[in-house]
Amino acid sequence: MKQFLTQDALKSYLQNKGGSIGFVPTMGALHEGHLALIKAAKAQCEQVVCSIFVNPTQFNDPSDFEKYPKTLANDIKLLTETGCDIVYTPEVDDLYPSGMKNLPHYPLGRLEELLEGAHRPGHFQGVCVVVDRLLQAVQPSHLYMGQKDFQQIAIIRKMLEITKSNVNLIECPTVRESSGLAMSSRNSRLSAEQKTQALAIFQGFNSPSAAAFESALVANGFETVDYVACCDPITLENKPWDERPCQILVAAFIGGVRLIDNQFMP
Ligand code: PAF
């Protein structure tokens, strides 16, 4: 696997390669969920590029940014074993050469006011800026993203529309531990007991009401529930709890760690 630290070096290397490029943007601390994206890209594309960059502009909570797990040596080992061709590991200056103020603004509309948008102001603008810049650097034919970040996929779909990008956005299913817990880099900040308590999320999707789901989360040690919502899977607008089909989305804190998950209810 080749590693590049700058987009100039990455671009000139890729220029001489023909064929399809599958791109998996990540913030590192890789787990099976990320590796499933690499495998999906490998199955469809001639070159697979992964980026590892903890993007400062998408963190609305400075302590979440500081505590974000960093495991670069292990990430590179996992990517090599999974058959990734190229890893791009830039420093902040490479993606933000003019600094992190006065960044472009994407007219995302309602999508960024709902759910994560309401609880993490500015988060999706930061995601759009960095993904747009990463796409300029990599120029992939296919972009792979995981459904655990369900709203992020909807936002990126909208951003691709706004920027008139013709990249193929490929959504891949959430990868879960055998217990049902959705894989997340933030899980590494949970104790064994908190990981067990966190199963209340997976077990809660079939709750009779949003209030029952929230109470079960609190009863299992979650200190704050940001939202439990039944939504239209496309617009993410709220729907009555028992309407089907719908997407149930949840965000809650346990041990100071914010977890998100979602499930399609046919
Ligand atoms: O999902 C993530 O890890 C990040 O939001 C992404 C897409 C890599 C942008 O920084």
UniProtKB/TrEMBL annotation:
InterPro entries associated with the record: Cyt_trans-like, Pantoate_ligase, Pantoate_ligase_C, Rossmann-like_a/b/a_fold
Homology family: Belongs to the pantothenate synthetase family.
Residues in the signal sequence: none
Subunit details: Homodimer.
Chief place where the protein resides: cytoplasm
Record flagged with keyword Ligase: yes
Subcellular location as annotated: Cytoplasm
General function of this protein: Catalyzes the condensation of pantoate with beta-alanine in an ATP-dependent reaction via a pantoyl-adenylate intermediate.
Protein name stated in the entry: Pantothenate synthetase
Highest taxon in the source lineage: Bacteria
Species name: Aquirufa regiilacus
UniProt catalytic activity: (R)-pantoate + beta-alanine + ATP = (R)-pantothenate + AMP + diphosphate + H(+)
GO terms of molecular function: ligase activity
PANTHER family: CYTIDYLATE KINASE/PANTOATE-BETA-ALANINE LIGASE, PANTOATE--BETA-ALANINE LIGASE
EC number: 6.3.2.1
Pathway recorded for this protein: Cofactor biosynthesis; (R)-pantothenate biosynthesis; (R)-pantothenate from (R)-pantoate and beta-alanine: step 1/1
Gene from which the chain derives: panC
Keyword list, A-Z: ATP-binding, Cytoplasm, Ligase, Nucleotide-binding, Pantothenate biosynthesis
